[in-house]
Amino acid sequence: MLIIVFNVLYWFLIEKVNVDRVNWGIFLLLGTGLLILPALPISVSAKYQQELNWYGGLGTGYIPVYIQYYGALMVLSVIIVLINKLINAKNRIIPKLILTTGVSLIIIINLNSNRTVVDKANIDLYYGRETLEKALDNNVLKDIPENSTILVKYEYKFDPYSSYIFNGLKGWLKGYNWDNRYLFYLHSKKVVNIVHTISQLVNIETKKQSDKIDLGNKNIFLLVIESYPEYFANQNKEGYVLLGKINYIQINNADINKSKIIIKFLRVWHEPHANEPVTIRKLDYLKSIIVNDTQIWTN
User: Fold this and answer.
1) 78, 100, 124 — which closes off a domain?
2) Cα 70 to Cα 42: distance, rounded to the nearest angstrom
3) Which range of residues forms the domain containing residue 171?
């Protein structure tokens, strides 16, 4: 639709534009600067260059790229003016077709780039949250006492962008834990404490005394969120939430957050198909899983 609107406006309005009052030399200089200069930091950035491997080498959209769009349009405006001034009306059709085709391709690439960025944001901030919210709404915490501590681990399977796009949750998103105690209370009406790393659970002094931390007599639980993209729904991979009581933690002295967690299995909430009743069941293949370098065993 955007491409159609652009082409209609261009073909019907371009002849009516008054271009005599514009200093096109300065306009071209400014447009060229906006087109080239923002690309310089991208060209020397390993992060951005690594992402060019995806999507046929076209990369993904960032603020410098959007600034370049303005520069490209300014340069194209100068080309349009030159076409109108130097070529008579009968011979303008082919240059106009070339110009509109080029701009249409730019719009298509931009739209696909934007779709990729939105999809990656959904992977980091939406799919897992939706899976967790549905599990909480369906009482996955019914066996959890009030004021318990829950270690939350989130992993997104089948991430097509994991090797190419690294957002790192910068700016206002940095440190934004959507899986917080407020969300848990909103959907389960239970007050619980939420932590996201093993180091938050284990006292450093305790760690020095033993490589095995027994937590069986405490109300400390593990909740694992495994979510999948919506387009995997037909393959029965809609996502699940695993819940277990932590019996003990086998400490990894090199990196405590990569320690092995042994849990007493409680339940798995598995996303049902549309219009089917919610099912909470144990999945046989969940004897041992690894989530973000943390090995989890059930017994």
Assistant:
1) 124
2) 17
3) 126-298
Do 108 and 174 fall into the same domain?
no
> Maximum Cα–Cα distance for the chain, whole Å?
88
Sequence-ordered list of residues with C-beta below 8 angstroms from that of 176, at least 6 positions apart, any chain: 125, 169
Q: Supply the pTM of this predicted model.
A: 0.65
How many structural domains is the chain composed of?
2
> How far is it, in rounded angstroms, from Cα 23 to Cα 21?
7
List all residues 6 or more positions away from 34 whose beta carbon is below 8 Å from its beta carbon.
67, 68, 70, 71, 74
Domain match, 197 and 279 both: yes
Task: Write out the DSSP string of 75-126.
Answer: HHHHHHHHHHHHS-GGG-HHHHHHHHHHHHHHHHHHHHHHHHHHHHHHHHHT
- 146 and 202 both lie in a single domain: yes
Chain segment 80-115, per-residue pLDDT in tens: 777 777 777 677 777 777 777 877 887 787 777 777
Residue where a domain stops, chosen among 124, 159, 184: 124
Backbone angles phi, psi at 150, to 5 degrees: -120, 125
Could you tell me the two tokens for 78? 């100068």
CA distance 125 to 178: 7
Whether residues 244 and 101 fall in one domain = no
